[in-house]
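Standup, Tuesday
Yesterday: got the pipeline producing structure tokens again.
Today: sanity-check two examples.
Blockers: none.

Example 1:
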Amino acid sequence: MRKSLLITILFLILPFYSYKNELVGKQAKPSSNLSPSINIPFPDSIFSVSKNSPDFYIVRKDLVKINQENLKLFGNQYNQKLIELNSKLSVLNDSIQKLLQIESNPELRFFDVKDPDIEENRWGIIARNLPFWAYILILVLILYTILISLRFFSIYFQEVSTLEQLEIVSNDFDSYKRNSIEKERKLLRDLIDAKNLIQELKDRDK
């Protein structure tokens, strides 16, 4: 009876140890984001050789309890990891669905077009979707740009014309100034000559 009980306990314990060895082998490999490793401490041995009867083994109940608690902890952590992975997969699935929706709708992927036919008709897509007030706004902007350009060129040509006139007036003034100086010098020489002539006539009369 005791031997059969020991065999039964061994059959119950060996799967736990094989599972532990499998976990240790997995932990030695680099873990990925989708399958993170879970570290659970397991006792090295839950049975020992009987001192009185070397052919029999003694099972330590405290270690069996520790193994049971560790297995529960492992199950809880594994379930938590599964929940996290399901959450990540749900987010990835939503992203994929959005990308598929954008790829299937030409208007949504207008600014990231990869289809040549859609690339050629992209402005036609905008033109069909713009409301009436948008056309009015575009027309007003075009007219405003034209008016600003005309005003700028008008001011520019006025400045050019004013500079040309100023240059002409400046040249005329310089010419008039030179002529005035020459006339003044000539009149001064004539005045000196007249004074000298009058002085000579007075000297002769004496």
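Example 2:
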Amino acid sequence: MCGIFAYVNHLVERDRNYIINTLLTGLSRLEYRGYDSAGIACDGDGENQIKELTIDYSKIFIVHVGIAHTRWATHGVPTEFNSHPHRSDPTAQFTVVHNGIITNYKELRLVLQKFGYVFESDTDTECIAKLAKYFYDTQKKVTGNTMTFPALVKAVCKELDGAFALLFKSSHYPQEIVAAKRGSPLLIGVKSSKQLKIDFLEVGDDQIPHVDKDDLDPVDTPAIIRTRSRSFIGDNGVVLPIEYILASDASAIIEHTKKVIMLEDDDVAHIAEGDLHIHRIRRNDEMPTLRPIQTLEAELAQIQKGKYAHFMSKEIFEQPESVINTMRGRLNFDDYTVTLGGLRSQLTNIRRSRRIIFSACGTSFHSCLAVKSTFSELCEMPISVELSSSFLDEKLPVFRDDVCVFLSQSGETKDTLLALQYCKERGALCVGVTNTVGSSISRETHCGVHINAGPEISVASTKAYTSQFIALTLIALQISSNSARVQARRNEIIDGLYKLTDDIKKTLALDQQLKQIAIENYKNAQNFILLGRGYQSATCLEGALKIKEVTYIHAEGILAGELKHGPLALIDESMPMILVMTKDRHYGVQLCINLGYRKCVETSDCAGWETTRNLFRNRQVIAS
């Protein structure tokens, strides 16, 4: 996964320092999408200037296009040559940033090498830049004319297999940018000091040329109604001072503007002379011909660290509020009712289904595991939890009477989207649970639930995990609301949710105590084993994942019942262990585990505090 960002200013004076800082800030907002390498491209001071360490930061640009990229390395190790943006040739006639994976890049690379193109990197993206130059040179050689920038990009995209969100910048098309999308997210933010005159942007045909300013004379009866148009040109054909921000995620746009356009698959967006036009790579009569200008609901404070040193710390301590936001307006504690508006239209079909299949990756997968037993208990139907990354490999049988639930914080997880497409093709009812309004999963599913956790900037997910757990629990509670047999258990769960915020605050109050234990006992640890059972098995898996993500230390979450079936061989005096124990039906079994080693931390709820402390006098015991 990568993050792409672009900033375009037209008739708005910005110095190079502002432009570069805007690009770098945009990348910092997308850091959760990758941070092993990054790069930016902006205009230089000279015609032949490609790379210069000493530049004039004070130079003013009235019109400028800058692009940026941050990445997780997939094709090619993290090096300067493999970092984006990628160029078509040493003079950088075409420059590209890319989020996604091109599956036929090896074939394209071989063809381009036969035409004499020399590659500088190991990435799939460099093929795209060189393919653009090939089409440009070929068209000019054969016809003597050049293609328009969007037509050129469409020709390139038609040769690509796989997923992509692309931003193109070219010296042949100065002060223009073209964006293209298929299978990867891409949004366009629109910022203007004037009020926008339109609510929808129409998708143009291939034959529609770029509008020339000289042809923009006012007419008595406009052909297109005022609230929808193919351009942002102002009244009387006057081009407005305007800025555009293109990004993989709304979190990189919200500090600039709340007005955004979400591109659909196979959209090609062209920005030139301050105007935006949207075209299609391939015509699809079923695709809407309008792209609404939407308003983001997030606030700027939500993407700033505030008093915290890191976004992860901020998001951990936001959990008392984020879980309330997930339940607000949905759960009535007085009459034990749950109302999820996003499921209302399909609730009867969900209750009649044969089974429920959950599909997710990483932290989202663990949240599905955490609620699996709750769904089995309340909904009284078969429940399956599948990794999206192996969903297609296993060719899981999916039928029309199945309900498939897809979880993703961003709503753009590629493996989960592929699993979603697989299930839709087989006629299953698809439900999306995401934290991003307008994301691909939220648009492709038949119904869904927004977890309302607020923007999550940190790479390591925290508050999204707890909010996903709550949202899924609410789904189970609503499905089972008409079942008399489970009402007692259902009410018990709702009472527990009522106390949840206070319990989270008590746990967060242990922050300094936990830090001290870690510093005194585990600062040199190279391995961790986490043990849990029942509801806490998913907690151990998620805890191990967090240790790996944040510390780069090996950690393994193990079901306590499996300890003596192999993993016990790993345990000796030097192996730190974390045992998660809560006062549930597995509590007695957990107490019977004879570890016999000192390097162990037990976490227990307050009800089990005294018992646990007396049994394990030589170990650290944390009560929450």
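Quick observation on example 2: Confidence is low (pLDDT under 50) at residues 207-226, 594-598, 608-619. The chain has 17 helices and 27 strands.
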